[in-house]
Design goal:
Layout lengths: L1 H15 L8 H13 L5 H27 L4 H28 L18 E4 L7 E4 L1 E6 L5 E7 L5 H16 L5 E4 L6 H5 L7 E4 L7 H24 L9 H26 L5 H6 L6
Parallel strand pairs: 5-6
Antiparallel strand pairs: 1-2, 3-4
């Protein structure tokens, strides 16, 4: 329960600023133990009681934060900014808890963590787990398997809405249009096909009849290979879980993992002598 963790955040604030706790902490811990033993149907009653105690505690916390903001010492100013961020976060938690208790089933940008505040519940297309929490990552590859683009996103936007931006990012990164675009069915839409530049020869959006028979086999193999690239990235190259916090931390982690992924791919192709001659000459690994 996030409200119990919110009390913990305020307790750290009180300890750091040598302020006595302004709530009955033993009672809060007793409630938390009761919540842990309660059956699923009984937990709403505990949430209601937690919320009734949280509202006045949050108001007192607001008074302490405003008092801290009046200090002129630079270190206190830095602490004040951090406390103001926490106050805004806990205020949002209070609003969303009120919506939950009022019976709201779908809450926009619902908070699921006080540490990973950009994380969102993400429904998965599998039995277990049916829902995971975090940010999402969109990536694209060239046919050799190099990871060309990465985009970290809050929530789980539909693939059809990401197609255009991902294609433009790929074009910008490579400095030219790809000869062939290959995606799965999730990216398929009339608008995406219509808005794909005519300079791209083949557009395969998940169906074999998108391209002529001569290109169908190539595109199917490319789509299958991309699934393998993604599996390697997630399970072997660190993309499965970011070790940094917030969206900006996830972006840094993604950049580091992308660099490592592409270096590994380069060494693999270099060892197998599958890199193009002009690429080796550009890198100074082969004399023209």
């Amino acid at each position: 329960m996030l409200i119990y963790k919110a009390f913990g955040k305020m307790e750290i604030f009180a300890r750091d600023h040598e302020i006595s706790l302004w709530w009955d902490n033993p009672h809060i811990k007793k409630l938390w133990r009761g919540f842990g033993r309660a059956k699923k149907g009984e937990r709403v009653a505990y949430l209601t009681e937690f919320y009734a105690l949280f509202v006045p505690a949050l108001e007192t916390f607001r008074i302490h934060v405003e008092s801290l903001a009046e200090a002129d010492v630079s270190e206190s100013q830095r602490a004040s900014l951090k406390a103001q961020e926490l106050l805004a976060l806990l205020t949002l938690l209070s609003d969303q808890t009120q919506q939950k208790l009022a019976g709201e089933q779908h809450i926009d940008n619902r908070m699921v963590s006080l540490d990973e505040v950009d994380a969102r519940p993400i429904k998965k297309g599998k039995t277990f787990p049916s829902c995971e929490f975090g940010t999402t990552l969109q990536m694209s590859f060239n046919r050799q398997g190099f990871m060309i683009t990465t985009e970290n996103l809050i929530g789980n936007p539909g693939d059809t809405t990401l197609y255009g931006d991902t294609l433009r990012l790929f074009q910008k990164r490579m400095g030219k249009d790809p000869d062939t675009v290959v995606t799965d069915l999730g990216f398929r839409s009339k608008n995406n096909r219509k808005n794909t530049p005519e300079t791209i020869s083949n557009v395969f959006l998940g169906r074999s009849d998108d391209v002529d028979e001569g290109q169908g086999d190539f595109c199917r193999k490319a789509r299958s290979a991309t699934e393998g690239f993604i599996a390697v990235a997630k399970n072997l190259r660190g993309f499965g879980r970011s070790l940094y916090h917030r969206l900006h931390g996830d972006k840094i982690w993604t950049f580091l993992c992308q660099t490592a992924y592409n270096l590994k791919k380069f060494l693999q192709l270099y060892r197998d002598e599958e890199l193009e001659k002009n690429s080796l000459e550009t890198l100074g690994l082969l004399t023209p």
